[in-house]
Amino acid sequence: MVLQISQNCVAYHGGLEPIAAACLAIAQAAAVPVAVHLDHASDVTLVEAAAALGLCSVMFDASALPYGDNVRATAEVAAWCHERGIWVEAELGEIGGKDGVHSPSARTDPAEAARYVAATGVDALAVAVGSSHAMLTRDAVLDLGLIATISRAVSVPLVLHGSSGVPDRDLIAAVQAGMTKINIATQLNRVFTAAVRRILSAEPAAVDPRKYGAAGRDAITPEVTRLLRLLAAGGISQGTAAGLREPAADRRARGGNAGEPLSPVE
Ligand SMILES: [Zn+2]
User: Fold this and answer.
1) How many A from CA of 94 to the centre of ligand 1?
2) What is the pLDDT along the chain (266 residues), one digit of tens a residue?
3) Which residues neighbour 7 within 8 Å (Cβ) at sequence distance 6 or greater?
4) Where in the chain does DSSP place strands (E)?
5) How far is the CA of 202 from the centre of ligand 1 (A)?
6) Active-site option among 39, 143, 170, 250
7) Measuring CA to CA, which of 3, 47, 74, 141 is 20 to 30 A from 37?
8) What pTM value is reported for the model?
9) Separation of 207 CA from ligand 1 center, angstroms?
10) Active site residue 39
11) Residue 84 Cα, ligand 1 centroid: separation in angstroms?
12) Architecture of the domain defined by 2-252
């Protein structure tokens, strides 16, 4: 299980430290292994701040840069993070929907992905295979053949961003095709907001955020459980078929705090 804090989330909270401290406390108290991950950081100083606060995993997103500049910037961040036992995810082939500027038709080239992973030393790769960020409908069409091809071409786990727009059966199929980390945020936001809207409509006099906030929180729990079971079902058949792969940072820092980046929730 991975709890993710995006650069946008940091901007909303006005800083990384309070939200990071809260997530780390939750991770430490959890009965299962939980990693706290900085998501979509394009600012190197934010990566440094995450390391200083004890986050064990970061996504450095240089996907908006030209290929050569993306490789150089990402390799530098990966080397710096690996000295500190931190797991690094990067992105190749802009995944649509972030700020509404990228095309959802973007695709990652498998050969370029293999060269990119070798040149940067990253521990996981987010790829563009048909999903798009912040979708409110679950009708994205994934390129499952491309997922399988990239999965064979690269040696590190693949990450699916924009998973909220992917229907259940395709989430399972994506995991079976080789996806390891599935980022889900918008779907949970939808479930949360629907529950809050219901209680505020039913009880117009409600003013205590703890009351309607709790309704949202309680609604998320069964949805997370449902999605985890769904993905686990796909993962069991992937593990049997291909053998489970282990992130490079875990191999380097076994026994350290390099995280458990093997399951979802953005
Ligand atoms: Zn993302």
Assistant:
1) 10
2) 999 999 999 999 999 999 999 999 999 999 999 999 999 999 999 999 999 999 999 999 988 888 899 999 999 999 999 999 999 999 887 665 554 334 567 888 999 999 999 999 999 999 999 888 888 888 888 999 999 999 999 999 999 998 888 999 999 999 999 999 999 999 999 999 999 999 999 999 999 999 999 999 999 999 999 999 999 987 766 655 444 444 444 444 433 333 333 334 44
3) 38, 39, 40, 41, 42, 43, 46, 61
4) 2-6, 35-41, 57-60, 87-92, 124-127, 158-160, 179-182
5) 34
6) 39
7) 141
8) 0.84
9) 33
10) yes
11) 24
12) Alpha-Beta Barrel (3.20)
Are 133 and 169 in contact by the 8 Å Cβ rule? The answer is: no
Q: So where are the chain's domains?
A: 2-252
